[in-house]
Amino acid sequence: MSGGPPTISDVARHAGVSKATVSHVLNARVYVRPQTRDRVLAAIRALDYAPAETARSLTARKRSAPRADASVPRLTTVGYVSVDYVARIPRLPEREERLQARGILKSIGGPAANVAAIAAGVGGPWPVAASIITSIGADQESDWAAAELAARRVDLIASRERRQGRLDRALVLVEADGRRTIVNEPSSLAEVDVRRFVDETETDGLRWCLHLEGFQAPIQIEALREARRKGFRTSVQATGLPPDWTAANAEKLFASVDALFLHRETLAALPGCPETPDDALAWLAARAANAPAGAWPQVVTLTLGAQGAAVVTRQAGARRAPAPDVAMLDKTGAGDAFVGAFLALWLHDCAPLLCARVACAAGSLAGTSFGAQEIRPAAAELAALAGVGLSEQAVALASDPASSPNQVIA
Question: Which InterPro entries would you find in this protein's record (predicted)?
Answer without folding.
Answer: HTH_LacI, Lambda_DNA-bd_dom_sf, PfkB_dom, Ribo/fructo_kinase, Ribokinase-like
